[in-house]
Amino acid sequence: MTVKRETTTTVTAPRKDGDTPIVVVDDVRHSFGSGPRAVHALRGVSFDIRRGELVALRGRSGSGKTTLLNLVGGLDSPTGGRITLDGTDLAALDEPGLLALRRDRIGFVFQSFGLIPVLTAVENVGVPMRLRRIPAKEREERARTLLALVGLADHAEQRPGELSGGQQQRVAVARALANDPDLIIADEPTGQLDLETGRSIMELLRAVVRSKAVTILVATHDPNLIELADRVVELRDGRIITPGDA
Ligand SMILES: Nc1ncnc2c1ncn2[C@@H]1O[C@H](COP(=O)(O)OP(=O)(O)OP(=O)(O)O)[C@@H](O)[C@H]1O
Ligand SMILES: [Mg+2]
């Protein structure tokens, strides 16, 4: 048996200690391609996210934000360094393990909403629960509760094409919450919205962090969003330049 955290890999019990970071990013590097044409998108990035924090990831286009979110979300594996989520080293998980982690512990929100056009709002919110084989009745009840939480109780039967951009993003936030995740990863969630609507989405995320004890990592250029964050991590050319508190 070992006590070194570096070598504890697969089965780690959830930690009770509120101060233990939920996400640890340790000297993460990531390159696309190899040889002289390789793009070094991340060049040694380290930071922690504490439970219940809303962290904004800022940086100009091409600085590595999406790359980093994809790695933290287990959508891709880093070329170097290590990422742990709630004490689990992502590198120790196989594909089914990563799939289960993404399904059960992480909620994703994207700039382009990513809703399924033929499904109603309540059906879209139910999709992650379907993947977990939650029975239809329970799924629908929970989806309706979540839609009410994001202010869309009266729009449950509308399809994405019948909703405004801001409403679609609210549905996406409700969907991200469907499986009661520990972490929400959002990539420029206000990027396609006007200032006012973007602000309301950001306030929604802020409220979600408060009421649901969720942690959020959000990439953004939006000053409104940055203002509401607990902390800002700034990337420049694949490195962190301001790890300090906002
Ligand atoms: N699949 C890929 N293949 C090759 N290079 C890639 C790939 N994905 C990203 N890159 C490169 O990695 C670097 C970081 O890209 P990334 O998408 O992480 O930036 P970003 O900060 O999210 O930018 P934006 O604000 O425009 O979304 C860029 O130079 C980009 O061209
Ligand atoms: Mg991006």
TrEMBL record:
PROSITE patterns: ABC_TRANSPORTER_1, ABC_TRANSPORTER_2
Single Gene Ontology MF annotation: ATP binding
One Gene Ontology cellular component annotation held by this UniProt entry: membrane protein complex
Domain ABC transporter residue range list: 23-246
Keyword rRNA-binding: no
Entries under InterPro entries matching the protein: AAA+_ATPase, ABC_transporter-like_ATP-bd, ABC_transporter-like_CS, ABC_transpr_LolD-like, MacB-like_ATP-bd, P-loop_NTPase
Entry superkingdom: Bacteria
Keywords: ATP-binding, Nucleotide-binding, Transport
Alphabetical list of Pfam families matching this protein: ABC_tran
Classification via PANTHER family: ABC TRANSPORTER RELATED, IMPORT ATP-BINDING PROTEIN
Name of the protein in its database record: ABC transporter
Protein species of origin: Streptomyces roseus
Taxonomic classification: Bacteria, Bacillati, Actinomycetota, Actinomycetes, Kitasatosporales
